[in-house]
Amino acid sequence: MMNGDEDGDDKQTEGGFEVKGYREKQRRGEQPGSQPKKTCFVTVGATASFNAMIREILHLDFLAALKANNYTTLTIQYGRHGDELFRSFVKDNENEVLHNYGLTLTGFDFDINGLKDEMCAAKANPSTNTAEGLVISHAGKLDQL
């Protein structure tokens, strides 16, 4: 049962208890009690080529491990030469990965603005229903933090 309160926010009542914040969760496409977004962000660096690393990240065993640990998003910064590998995998496997592993795949080669947004997406934030995630990088210098 939905009721509007004075400030326009809806409340969902369940067994006589009010669940506040329902409208905000609806705006974000979530249902109350939905699984938190949990991001694994992988970066190979701006100019480096680490296609072997990308292949391992896209391996079904790795995707299964992400699923087992409740990840919902896999974002890959694949570098200068990883575009073809990433796009080919997504073209052939995106629906299977979403259906079987519950993962949304995104990727990009380089972002002139840096990687702060992607790294912050892996941080917990209860107000956006985001769980603590993971950042994986190559062993080079990481100057974004």
UniProtKB/TrEMBL annotation:
InterPro entries (UniProt xref): UDP-GlcNAc_transferase
Biased composition (Basic and acidic residues): 20-30
Gene Ontology terms: cellular component: UDP-N-acetylglucosamine transferase complex
Matching PANTHER family: UDP-N-ACETYLGLUCOSAMINE TRANSFERASE SUBUNIT ALG13
GO molecular function: transferase activity
Biological process annotations from GO: dolichol-linked oligosaccharide biosynthetic process
Region (Disordered): 1-38
Superkingdom classification of source: Eukaryota
This protein's name: Glycosyltransferase family 28, putative
